[in-house]
Amino acid sequence: MRFLDIFSLAYRSVSGNRLRTGLTVSIIAVGITVLVGILTAIDSMKNSIYSSFASMGANSFSLRNRDMQVHIGNDGDKASKGNKNIKKVRKSISNKPISYQEAVQFKDRYHFPATVSINFRASGIATVYKDDKKTNPNVTVIGGDENYLDISSYTIRDGRNFNALDVSSGRNVAILGKDVAEKLFGRKMKNVVNNTIRVGDVRYRVIGVLESKGSSNLMSADNVVITTVNNTRRIFNRPNASYQIGVSVKDIKQMEAAQGEAIGTFRVVRQLALNDEDNFTLSKSDSIAEMLFQSLGTVNLFAVAIAAITLFGSAIGLMNIMLVSVAERTREIGVTKALGATSKTIRKQFLYEAIIISTMGGLFGALAGMLLGNIVSILLKSSFVVPWAWILTGVGLCAAVGLVSGIYPAYKASKLDPIIALRYE
């Protein structure tokens, strides 16, 4: 018999006993629903985390001076003396601030396909005034260049970004965060652009207002006044001021290469010897995201374990049902053999039946799991996820379960003696 004939016969046998087939399909579908559902939900959470950290600069990193040092105890000192290859930070340069000239040199020498910005946090306790209105004395004043808003993932709501003339001249222009603009100009924020404010005793012309970004780390990203880095150098400069360099990589897959080249370039700028340890710190913005992804990876393992246990139980149940089916259809097998069907044909028929039942369970389970998992996408307002890899894996596992579960019943059916089978009551 041809494949289509045997497959058609197997399908009619499966559909002929809908209750038993439905129960078996349901058992298998539960395991795949758990697997695909949890993994789809995890993919939805990952997409949401990626989106959240992208707004905080997940594809960026920063270079700042090494303002925190870890002191090694006596054991560490002994180990250092015993190994001459261990790099050390010379005390004379261990906490050397990053000067504006060094930051500019880095920006000129760094040729990786990335965006570089220089910024300087001028104050964390400033009060901003507009006529008789004022903010609390906790507004952060930041000096940046024309790339600072892009690297920090700020979006202009009204007005414009800094231009080259603003940065080079250091003139008194400012961009307001949403919280500051609302405090000084009301919730509707009318006529903010081209108006004037006062930061301490210094007047600024407002050229832009930022969209809300929310809070991150230890500061509100909306409670800021951003001016140019040269303006902060002129007005808010202080002894031993240290500037920060931000780098935004265009392709997140090149993050490690970008960081390596940044460290090498800045070591040259800082004039460090080969045996000197870095006297600056590279900070990644996505460290929290990586920690969350590791936690979600553990959940992945639990999902796979639960699905494996369920599928193992389904395999036992499917084999039992197929054995019962062989016993019930003994006379049918005898008639089929008497009409000329070979043992190979009988074996294929029962194998196809087991595979059909398990694959149907896999398809229904994958669909249900995808829909249940995307409830998380709706709650997190992230994009709809179709985990094709896990769907194909789940259906493939179910087909394998059907094949394994059907081998023994199919072999048993094919070995029945037609004469004995015809006498079976």
Characteristic terms for this protein:
single chain; 425 residues; twelve-stranded mixed sheet; two-stranded antiparallel sheet; 14 helices; 17% strand; Macrolide_Exporter_MacB; cell membrane; transmembrane transporter activity; transmembrane helix; MacB_PCD
Number of helices: 14
Q: Note the run of SSEs as H and E.
A: HHEHHEEEEHEHEHEEEEEHEHEHHHHH
- Could you tell me how far the N terminus lies from the C terminus, measured between alpha carbons in angstroms? 28 Å
What low-confidence regions span 5 or more consecutive residues with pLDDT below 50? 68-86
Counting DSSP E segments of at least 2 residues, the number of strands comes to 14
Overall mean confidence score, pLDDT? 82
Radius of gyration: 34 Å
- Structural class given helices, strands, pairing? alpha+beta
As a percent range, the share of helical residues equals: 40-55%
Tell me, what's the shape? elongated
Give a quick account of the main beta sheet: strands, pairing sense, barrel closure. Answer: 12 strands, mixed
Percent of residues in beta strands: 15-25%
Note the topology:
Blueprint: H1 3-16, H2 18-54, E1 60-65, H3 74-82, H4 100-109, E2 114-126, E3 128-130, E4 133-134, E5 139-144, H5 148-151, E6 156-159, H6 164-169, E7 173-176, H7 178-185, E8 196-199, E9 202-210, E10 215-216, E11 219-220, E12 224-228, H8 229-235, E13 244-249, H9 255-269, E14 280-284, H10 287-328, H11 330-338, H12 343-380, H13 388-414, H14 418-423
Parallel strand pairs: 5-12, 7-9
Antiparallel strand pairs: 1-13, 1-14, 2-5, 2-13, 3-4, 3-8, 6-9, 7-12, 8-9, 10-11
